[in-house]
């Protein structure tokens, strides 16, 4: 049985929503529990598909896990294996983080190459190149990759500020006896969060959030005693942005708690260009539009602090309701417009060519049957459905459930008419890993 969302559109969303812990922090942090044996309490951890997949991988390596409400407790003292099984590896691209954390713990790691996915090729050459620069030996046999040897550390430079490669290498560098400096790092807030977690586990890592990260090798000097640590995850700026766009698209007004405006500045600037009123106090943001939405002009996805690619599909939906022409240029992933044809089916006016899409705002969209092809593209269709006239069905919501905890419940708490329905259908074979 597959689940769909059934949405009755046209109701302005109103109320208050508390933003949850970030998916993109939870995944590297969970992988990082392997770096040092210990008992880790990770609070505000979202209960989403990708986190459950990561939990399965940790268990397969010998860790024990349990949940207490929104806290996942990982006991990594028993981790005894350094191989991630192929079946689990293929479920999620973030399994690649185990390479760094297993190297830190066991001095060796074997994983299977994560394949392409619905939003593009997703190579891991920057991860591999960084590990080689650190001194590790890499062997490959078809899809399998072994990594072992001594980490000599030193100064390495990434060819591109990849988020995942920065995080993976921060963990792998802990295996060194010497210190490592990684230059041209990604600067996403989730990287600061990983640094915070690693510090709470007793490691010395500095500089996250800037383009240079310093890692003190913990190799021989490592305290082999297990550790007990409590860590609160960063809030999910992408979840927050998604809900805000649903509020704006429906002409509603809502207050979001547990979200700091400084980690989503570029998205908020864009909302302001569209005519939204934003008020913030401490960790709370209130958002609404007094008049209708207007086009924000040109939006280009970029590494942080630029406009996040993970908000691009939802923004495309929102711009369908904004007066004037909007250009969206997707600079991070090669094919991230899977939602476009479904929006067109609903009556949107969108032309795309390569990495550019031009959206002409329309008076309204009409609900119809649509299909999520990936996580954020699926969220974009939900936003369109909430703001459209009539009924919208979004199929294949397992893509959405990978990254949003109880999206239906959250939107209903704001007054949205959305429910999950079940249907007898086969799950399509997802090529390679999940999207982001
Ligand atoms: C992370 C986020 C994802 C987000 C993306 C970009 C997590 C779990 N996922 O993914 O939600 O969309 O950042 O903000 O944090 N690349 C290479 N070679 C590599 C690595 C990356 O060419 O070895 C390319 C990718 O194909 C992509 C670009 O670099 O075009 C950015 O990828 P990267 O920053 O690595 O994204 P992820 O870490 O996979």
Instruction: Specify the overall morphology.
Output: globular
Q: What is the radius of gyration computed over CA atoms, rounded to a whole number of angstroms?
A: 21 Å
The distinct ligands, each listed once, are: uridine-diphosphate-N-acetylglucosamine
Q: Which structural class best describes the helix and strand composition?
A: alpha+beta
Tell me the span between the first and last alpha carbons.
Answer: 25 Å
Low-confidence stretches: none
**Helical residue percent?**
25-40%
Q: How many structural domains are formed by the residues?
A: 2
Across the major sheet, the strand order is 21-22-1-23
Strand content: 25-35%
The CATH homologous superfamily of the largest domain is termed Enolpyruvate transferase domain
What is the CATH class designation of the largest domain?
Alpha Beta
By CATH, the topology of the largest domain is UDP-n-acetylglucosamine1-carboxyvinyl-transferase, Chain
Total beta strands: 23
The oligomeric state of the chains shown is single chain
Mean pLDDT: 93
Secondary-structure arrangement, i.e. CATH architecture of the largest domain: Alpha-beta prism
Major sheet attributes: 4 strands, mixed
The total count of helices amounts to: 14
Q: Could you characterize what this model shows?
A:
The protein has two domains: 2-19 and 236-423, UDP-n-acetylglucosamine1-carboxyvinyl-transferase, Chain (Alpha-beta prism); 23-232, Alpha-beta prism (UDP-n-acetylglucosamine1-carboxyvinyl-transferase, Chain). With 436 residues, it is an alpha+beta fold. Helix 4 packs parallel to helix 6, helix 6 packs parallel to helix 7 (189-200) and helix 8 runs parallel beside helix 10. The protein has helices spanning 23-32, 49-60, 86-89, 97-106, 125-134, 163-172, 189-200, 237-249, 265-273, 312-319, 340-345, 375-387, 398-401, 407-413; strands spanning 2-8, 14-18, 38-43, 64-68, 71-75, 108-112, 137-141, 144-148, 154-157, 180-183, 205-206, 212-215, 227-232, 253-257, 276-281, 284-289, 298-300, 325-329, 349-353, 356-360, 369-371, 391-395, 417-423. It contains 14 helices and 23 strands. The mean pLDDT is 93. A four-stranded mixed beta sheet has the order 21-22-1-23. It has a four-stranded mixed beta sheet with strand order 2-14-16-15, with helices on one face. It binds uridine-diphosphate-N-acetylglucosamine. Residues 24, 27, 93-94, 120, 122-127, 160, 162-165, 186, 190, 309-310, 332-333, 436 line the site of uridine-diphosphate-N-acetylglucosamine.
């Amino acid at each position: 049985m597959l689940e769909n969302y059934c949405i009755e559109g046209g109701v302005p969303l109103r109320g208050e929503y508390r933003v949850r812990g970030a998916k993109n922090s939870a995944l590297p942090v969970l992988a990082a529990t392997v770096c040092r044996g210990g008992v880790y309490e990770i609070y505000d951890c979202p209960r989403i598909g990708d986190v459950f997949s990561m939990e399965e991988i940790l268990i397969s390596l010998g860790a024990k896990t349990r949940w207490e409400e929104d806290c996942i407790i990982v006991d990594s003292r028993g981790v005894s294996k350094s191989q991630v099984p192929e079946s689990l590896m293929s479920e999620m691209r973030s399994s690649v983080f185990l390479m760094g954390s297993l190297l830190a713990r066991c001095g060796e790691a074997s994983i299977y190459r994560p394949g392409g996915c619905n939003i593009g090729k997703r190579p891991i050459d920057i991860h591999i190149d960084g590990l080689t620069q650190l001194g590790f030996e890499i062997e490959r046999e078809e899809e399998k990759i072994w990594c072992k040897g001594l980490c000599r550390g030193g100064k390495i430079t990434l060819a591109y500020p990849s988020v995942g490669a920065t995080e993976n290498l921060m963990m792998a560098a802990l295996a060194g006896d010497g210190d490592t400096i990684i230059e041209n790092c990604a600067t996403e807030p989730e990287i600061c969060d990983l640094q915070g977690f690693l510090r709470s586990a007793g490691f010395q890592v500095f500089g996250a959030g800037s383009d240079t990260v310093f890692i003190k090798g913990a190799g021989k000097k490592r305290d082999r005693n297990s550790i007990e640590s409590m860590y609160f995850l960063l809030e999910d700026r992408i979840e927050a942005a998604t809900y805000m766009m649903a509020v704006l698209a429906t002409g509603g007004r809502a207050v979001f708690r547990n979200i700091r405006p400084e980690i989503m500045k570029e998205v908020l600037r864009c909302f302001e260009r569209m005519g939204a009123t934003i008020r913030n106090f401490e960790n709370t943001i209130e958002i609404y539009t007094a008049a209708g939405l207007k086009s924000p002009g040109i939006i280009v996805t970029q590494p942080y602090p630029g406009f996040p690619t993970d908000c691009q599909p939802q923004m495309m939906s929102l711009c369908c309701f904004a007066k004037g022409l909007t250009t969206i240029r997707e600079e991070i992933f090669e094919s991230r417009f899977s939602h476009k044809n479904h929006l067109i089916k609903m009556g949107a006016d969108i032309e795309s060519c390569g990495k550019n899409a031009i959206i002409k705002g329309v008076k309204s969209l009409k609900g119809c049957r649509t299909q999520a092809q990936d996580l954020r593209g699926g969220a974009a269709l939900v936003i369109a459905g909430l703001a459209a006239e009539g009924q919208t069905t979004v199929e294949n919501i397992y893509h959405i459930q990978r990254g949003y905890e109880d999206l239906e419940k959250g939107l209903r708490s704001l007054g949205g008419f959305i429910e999950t329905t079940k249907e007898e259908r086969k799950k399509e074979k997802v090529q390679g890993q999940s999207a982001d």
